[in-house]
Design goal:
Blueprint: H1 3-14, H2 30-36, E1 45-50, H3 52-78, H4 84-106, E2 108-111, E3 116-123, E4 126-133, H5 140-150, H6 171-180, H7 195-207, H8 224-246, H9 251-256, H10 276-279
Antiparallel strand pairs: 1-4, 2-3, 3-4
Helix pairs in contact: 1-3, 1-8, 3-4, 3-8, 4-5, 4-6, 4-8
Length: 282
Amino acid sequence: MNKELSSQVQRMFAGLNNQSAAGALPAPGALANLLSRHVVPTSATTIVTAPPRELVYFATAAVEVWLRSVHSFLISVSLTRASPIWSSVAGYYSSHYSIRAFAHLFGVFHLHRKKRVVHLEKAANHFVFRIEKKQGGDREHKLYWKYVKEHPQLAKDPFFYASQDDQPRSDGSHRNKANYSDHVDRFPVFLPLEAEYLEERVERISTILFSDVPVPDADNFPDIENVQVVAYHRIVKFRQLVDEAIGTENRFWKVQRSPSWCPKTLTFSVVDPVFAALYAGK
C-alpha cells in the first residue's frame, strides 16, 4: 500500500479511536445526507473542504457496507441447497457490497438522487470533496466496479474487474440470469437452514485451492461455488487492507472486523499455497 492511501485511511479512522465502538455507526443515510448538502445544483463540478469530522463517515460507510457483504455471503451460503436462485443473488450482492466498501475506503461515493459522484482528494495538507455531475453511463454497479478495478491498489489484483453483463463469464451476467431470465426453473425441495451445514460450507469455501480466478459463468448457472468463492476472497481482501493501513487496535475496527454474529468457522482466512502470488496481485 502506498503512503498516500495509508495516510488517507488512517485519517478516516482516527476519530473512531476516540470513542466507544458501541453506537459509533451513524444514522442510515448519514454520508449521503452530508455530501448532498455540498451539492450546487447549477454546477457540474464543485470542490469543497472536507473537515476531519466528515472523513469519519467514509470509514463507517466502508465498514458498514463491508458488514453487509459478510452478512450477504452467509445468506448465500445458507441458501446453497434451499434456493440456488437466491443463493446466487445474495452471493452477487456480497461481492458488490465489498466493491462498494473498497470504493468508499478509497474516497468515492455515488449520490444517486443528486446525480453526482463524490471523490475525496488530497489538497496540500488537507482533503477536499470533488463533486461531479454523473455521466450518462455512470450506473452505480458499473461505476463502483470500474473505479475499484482501476485503482492503483487493486489494478493488478485479478479478483477485481469491471462489471460486465454482455458476456456469460461475469458476475453481472450470472446475477442477471437469476434475476431476469425466464424459465430458470431451479426449485429443489426446500430444506430448513442448518447451522452445521453453514459452518461446513464456509470452511469449504475458505479452503478451496485454484490456479485462476473462478469468475461466475451464466452459462453454468447456477454457478454458486464460484459466486461464493470470489465473494469470500473480496471480503478477506478488504479486511486485510484495513488491517494493513491502521492495524487491529483501532477501537471501532477492532470490534467490527470480527462480527459477533458470524459463525466460528468464518475466520477470514484463505489457503495460500497455490494461489498466493495471484491473490496478492503480484
